[in-house]
Amino acid sequence: MEHAQPTKRKMLRVTLAGVFGTTLEFYDHFIYGSAAALVFPHVFFVQMSPSLALLLSLVTYSVAFVARPLGAVVFGHFGDRYGRKNVLIAALLMMGVSTFLIGCLPSYAIAGSFGATALCFLRLFQGIALGGEWGGAALIVNEYARDSKAKGLLGSVVQVASPVGLLLASASFALLTDFTPPDFLLAGGWRIPFLASALLVLTGLYVRRGVDESPAFLEQDRSQQAAPIVEVFKHHLKPVLLGIGTRVGSDTAFYVFTLFPLVYLPRLGVAEEVASMVGVFAALGQIVGTPVFGYCCDKWGTKKVLLAGAVANLAYGFAYFWLLDTTSTPVILAGAFVALFLLSMAWAPLAAHLPALFPVEVRYTATSVSFQAAGIFGGALAPSICLLLLDSTASGMVIAAYLGVTLVLAFFCTLKSNPR
After folding, report:
1. Which of 104, 179, 240, 310 is the most exposed place for a label (fewest CB within 10 A)?
2. What is the pLDDT of residues 234-274, one digit of tens each?
């Protein structure tokens, strides 16, 4: 069947709709991570010992990883049954409102434990929203670009949203810590990044409201369709498991390359200011690398790029810790840039590769579940595993070996997958 090609103007708007909304989602996710480590123990958990306060604050951060698969199922159900566009708008609003309300929460000194309790619920809503966001954004761009020769490149633009969100979050907290009085952050300055997310929400809503529904969704017959999640587990469980395995390696690598240095470098005697800059340089490397390897997907296919990415990142994992061990600031920052540039080989193809594993009638649900379930094993478990290995061995090379295991899994799952 011949499909009418969308105009360049429409394709641009669809791509921007995916990028703006997903950037907000990742920005909100990363500013919460920064605040959970730097601020929330002193604002919402002051009645406890410092170590317990930090632990509980980080537990609220982990809540989102558990909630994301739930969001994938809920938003995936409505996205497969009623359309991609309105579900994406709902995910954007849920994330934006939750983040804004976090910026309004009263501290323990004002309202006791109410603030911490509300924080947990709002973090839960953030996780549900993020669980529905990525799959829909990747999907609508993928389905509009189904006959395009630049399908991989357009999909990679959605993937740029993650490092852009990281860069914005890192920069916002860097400005608050480096250019304001010492007590400004805890006195209420931390609220600014959360309240400022309203600007991204309004921009995202404006762009998304002007996008038409996915043509692939409109063409399908939905009259006899069962619940999408039932169909997925009944007929598409194997590609879901392969999709999870394909993404686990890149998710683990992202943590090891960008966040783990915040723990590892201070133990080597490196200043915390240098460790905090790792995220900025890493984000820049991913911003540069993602469209480069998206373009490569259009030349050689998503599968080949993902396989090459697993091998390259496995090798670089060991080199990266050798670079960190030099304790040289230029070497560390350059190493972080290269790390996320190479990681883009395993990240850029996902927005085109995962949707291609599933038929259109369950694509939103199956793609979202594959992507978000992998986050439990990568984003949620990796921090604890890495810290346990470091405390047991005091060696960064053991962390690199652990990363290598997840990348071997990604290699074989990618090898066994069959994009449509």
Report:
1. 179
2. 889 999 999 999 999 999 998 889 878 877 888 899 887 78
* Helix %, strand %, coil % of the chain (to 5): 85, 0, 15
Q: What is the DSSP string of 133-172?
A: HHHHHHHHHHHHTTT-TTHHHHHHHHHTHHHHHHHHHHHH
DSSP character string of 286-309: HHHHHHHHHHHHHHH-HHHHHHHH
DSSP secondary structure string, 268-280?
TT--HHHHHHHHH
Quick one: which of 28, 31, 104 has its CA closest to 68? 28
Model confidence pLDDT, tens digit, residues 305-339: 999 999 999 999 999 999 999 999 999 999 999 99
Looking at this protein, which amino acid is placed at residue 303?
K
CA distance 155 to 354: 11
Q: For residue 252, what are its two tokens?
A: 């683990």
Q: Cβ contacts of residue 382 below 8 Å, gap of 6+?
A: 251, 252, 255, 256
Residues 144 and 362: their CA atoms lie apart, in Å, by: 17
The DSSP 8-state label assigned to residue 54 in this structure reads H
Please say whether the beta carbons of 276 and 329 come within 8 A. Answer: no
Query: What is the C-alpha R_g of the chain?
Result: 21
Calculate the alpha carbon distances from 374 to 17, 65, 177 in Å.
25, 10, 33
Residue at token pair 């230029």: 330
- Tens of pLDDT, residues 397-417: 999 999 999 999 999 999 999
Supply 279's token pair.
């995220």
Least confident of 11-25, 78-92, 211-225: 211-225
Question: Could you tell me if 343 and 293 are in contact, meaning their C-beta atoms sit under 8 angstroms apart?
Answer: no
Q: Is the pTM of this model over 0.70?
A: yes
